[in-house]
Write a structure and sequence with these properties.
about 110 residues, globular, about 0% strand, 4 helices, mainly alpha
């Protein structure tokens, strides 16, 4: 079951088509996500949980980036880098699985 619109699926496919994400593609996804959230707010009003979720995502992204930068500064071994990558990927998958479960409630 897909919870995404065709336009979002097209954007995601475009961004990941070459197997990597550039900074400009990242910004494009971020800006698109903000526009979609604004559409939701315009349609249903400024709901505290929705706007709080959007802010939480911004904070989570910033913390993810800072965590990776901190790890990079620590000059980790290959094993250390693998541990950081594995832990962060697990957190992102946790969010993805949770969003799937929550959206099934709609």
């Amino acid at each position: 079951m897909s919870f995404t619109s065709q336009s979002l699926e097209d954007l995601i496919n475009e961004v990941y088509q070459d197997g990597s994400v550039s900074f400009s593609e990242y910004k494009m996804l971020r800006d698109d996500a903000d526009c979609r959230m604004q559409t939701l707010i315009n349609e249903f009003g400024c709901h505290n949980n929705m706007t709080a979720f959007q802010k939480a995502m911004d904070v989570a992204m910033q913390l993810l980036q800072l965590s990776v930068l901190d790890a990079k500064k620590a000059k980790l071994t290959d094993v250390g880098e693998a541990i950081v990558s594995d832990a962060i990927t697990a957190q992102v998958e946790y969010l993805r699985a949770g969003s799937y479960l929550a959206l099934r409630l709609l």
